[in-house]
Design a protein that fits this description.
Radius of gyration of chain A: 20 Å
Strand order of the largest sheet of chain B: 5-4-3-6-10
Largest sheet of chain B: 5 strands, mixed
Largest sheet of chain A: 6 strands, parallel
Oligomer: heterodimer
Structural class of chain A: alpha/beta
Distance between the termini of chain B: 30 Å
Helix content of chain A: 25-40%
Shape of chain B: elongated
Distance between the termini of chain A: 50 Å
Strand order of the largest sheet of chain A: 2-1-3-4-5-11
Largest interface: A-B, 26 and 28 residues
Number of strands of chain A: 12
Shape of chain A: elongated
Structural class of chain B: alpha/beta
Chain lengths: 266, 375
């Protein structure tokens, strides 16, 4: 029986859990899937415990491994697929949700469909590829609509709902005018929406709120999002890895589509 | 009638039926006979074959005619019966899409071409990545490249950007994946996409695609003229410019020069793009306005040649330069009006095609047209 190793930070987190479910869906009972969750405590990352030599292929979820670690794995000749991140100067294939289309779709929707011009952006973790990329794309989206926002309209979020809620509160206290909030992920969008509703701000009349990605929380709160089917990302990543294990060479990134889901918040 | 001709007639009839179903012109055998002009027995044979091969399914019964005749069996084209791969190759990147028969791209794959890479290898690795994702049999692959292409033979005759001469690309790819492969010029594919997407007359449309090369694609009546080519080396009369002034690497150098002389320029804020140049223009930075004027001067000459020779009703600016948007087209329009007859300009639309995926999407459409005669 073939063996796939999944290396991730914390297998219990929603995103990681759904990716692993997608991989297991494709693997079925013909391929053994071993999961190594190496940073369940973010402050004490431990070394990889999987026996790499025993594995036929490796999936790495998010940017939990350093460039050097990935390079070292790659040099061992094992098929590797990166999920939700890429390492630009290493020839390792990846499967990623389409940040580009997703964020540009959100900005286009807020600016063109909703007619909003004073947009607050809640950033992700700027130490992560996804965080930096979504921030750049937000700026690009503004330029496409000939909009600009002051620097203090870019709020710290760190992909953490509590941080996002605090930043939203602080921004409200400044009294600065705004008519839309775009959050770099839906959980931060939910947190901002919660804060705004508690302050009796008319949503979406006065402020439209949207976020990237989708989940039960967004649906429950009526948050407009661009949705990503995370389980499907897991399935596609598994297919990419299995194909490499069958001897197919590949590099580059497979991007999966996002879909705008309009709900009550816009 | 020899065997080959009978096969051609059979294929032609099959395509007529598939197209009628694809475009919802008819949904049962009798209606298909009327819509295509084929006999009912011929329709019956073709529908049976299409059901056997999984392209068509029977989905129930329609209403009987007013005279109370037998209820027709409704047949439906299955958009998910097969998939195709469309690819666009440029000098620094390959963009490919895996699509169903309705043209919906379900996965896109991008590969970067680095200096020294074997482009054919990168192309194969890109196709491999999408082959890994197919949900239905992949019917064929269509590839767009910059440069001169013989679409009949699938040979890339001359691509300066890819450093390919007489490259039998269709044969190479077809041999590896054992499915048909079609090759076209990238700008022709963008034009094909424009024609497919447009809701107005596109019979006199010209696409000017500007990125790392400058290429022209045009329609010829109801079809796309398959002789697109690179015009970068043409000289602009009375100036020191060649059309190559417009390629991104030159514009980027000009933008860097602006930053060097004015570090506070809006261009210094982030990675250089045409969008950033647009921002600097809208902020009325003198150096940015001057660069825009130079670009409009050269582009208006190119458009002037096209208008003089071809009298199109629409010229579409595509490629990365289209990101700069209407600020450039407005200037081009002003300059053209100084030189061209008012009556000619009155019939001309200058438009933008802003998606970076148009060539890849055009390749998907090209694949469907070549293989099934649909879209």
């Amino acid at each position: 029986m073939s063996k796939i190793g999944i290396i991730t930070n914390d297998k219990a987190q929603v995103f990681q859990r759904e990716i692993i479910a997608g991989v297991q869906d494709v693997a079925g009972d013909k391929i053994e899937v071993l999961v190594d969750s190496i940073a369940e405590n973010p402050d004490t990352r431990r070394p990889i415990s999987l026996d790499i030599d025993e594995l036929d292929g490796i999936l790495v979820i998010s940017n939990i491994l350093s460039h050097d670690e990935l390079q070292s794995l790659h040099q061992r000749g094992k098929p590797i697929t990166l999920v939700s991140h890429q390492e630009e100067d290493l020839p390792i294939a990846a499967v990623i949700q389409n940040n580009t289309d997703g964020i540009l779709q959100l900005v286009d929707y807020v600016a063109r469909e909703c007619g909003r011009t004073q947009i607050v952006f809640i950033r992700g973790d700027m130490n992560q590829h996804d965080g930096r990329q979504r921030d750049n794309l937000f700026q690009m989206g503004l330029m496409q609509h000939d909009l600009t926002t002051p620097d203090d309209y870019n709020l710290v979020g760190d992909f953490n709902p509590v941080t996002a809620a605090n930043s939203m509160l602080e921004f409200l206290e400044t009294g600065k005018p705004f008519d839309a909030v775009i959050a770099a992920d839906y959980l931060m969008g939910c947190a901002a929406l919660d804060v705004l509703r508690h302050h009796d701000i008319d949503i979406p009349g006065d402020v439209a709120v949207v976020g990237f990605g989708d989940g039960a929380e967004a649906e429950d709160m009526g948050l407009t999002v661009v949705g990503v089917d995370v389980v499907e990302i897991g399935r596609r990543a598994a297919r990419q890895l299995l194909s490499q294990m069958d001897g197919m060479t590949m590099t580059g990134v497979t991007w999966l589509n996002t879909e705008l889901i309009v709900r009550d918040s816009s | 009638m020899n065997k080959a001709t009978r096969a051609q007639v059979k294929q032609h009839n099959r395509r007529l039926v598939m197209r009628a179903l694809y475009e919802n012109l008819a949904d049962n055998r009798a209606a298909l006979a009327i819509a295509t002009g084929l006999t009912k027995p011929t329709i019956g044979t073709i529908i049976s074959e299409l059901i056997d091969t999984g392209y068509v399914t029977e989905v129930g019964y329609g209403s009987s005619s007013s005279s109370g005749g037998k209820r027709p069996t409704i047949v439906e084209f299955l958009q998910q019966a097969r998939q195709v791969i469309g690819v666009s190759v440029s000098g620094d990147e390959i963009i490919a899409g895996l699509a169903y028969l309705d043209g919906t791209v379900i996965a896109r794959h991008n590969s970067v071409i680095s200096p020294g890479d074997n482009i054919l290898d990168v192309l194969r690795w890109t196709v491999n990545a999408l082959m890994a994702q197919h949900d239905a049999d992949v019917l064929c692959i269509a590839i767009g490249v910059p440069g001169v292409v013989d679409s009949q033979t699938g040979i890339v005759v001359d691509s300066r950007i890819l450093h390919w001469e007489a490259m039998p690309l269709a044969r190479e790819i077809s041999k590896q994946y054992r499915i048909p492969c079609y090759v076209s010029n990238n700008t022709e594919l963008v034009t094909r996409m424009q024609v497919t997407q447009s809701d107005h007359d596109t019979s006199h449309l010209v696409t000017v695609s500007i990125g790392d090369s400058i290429e022209i694609g045009s329609t010829f009546g109801d079809d796309v003229y398959q002789h697109g080519s690179d015009i970068s080396k043409l000289e602009i009369p009375g100036t020191d410019y060649t059309v190559e002034f417009l390629v991104w690497k030159h514009i980027k150098e000009k933008m860097k020069a602006i930053i060097a002389s004015n570090p506070d320029s809006a261009l210094s804020e982030r990675k250089l793009t045409y969008l950033l140049l647009r921002r600097a223009v809208l902020m009325k930075e003198p150096a940015a306005l001057e660069l825009l004027d130079e670009m409009a001067t050269v582009l208006s000459h190119v458009y002037g040649w096209i208008i003089g020779l071809m009298r199109p009703t629409e010229i579409v600016l595509a490629g990365t330069m289209s990101e700069i948007g209407h600020v450039l087209l407005t200037e081009v329009d002003k300059k053209l009006r100084q030189r061209m007859p008012a009556a000619t300009m009155a019939q001309l639309r200058l438009t933008l095609a802003q998606s970076q995926y148009l060539s890849m999407q055009g390749a998907v459409i090209f694949a469907l047209q070549q293989e099934l005669g649909i879209v």
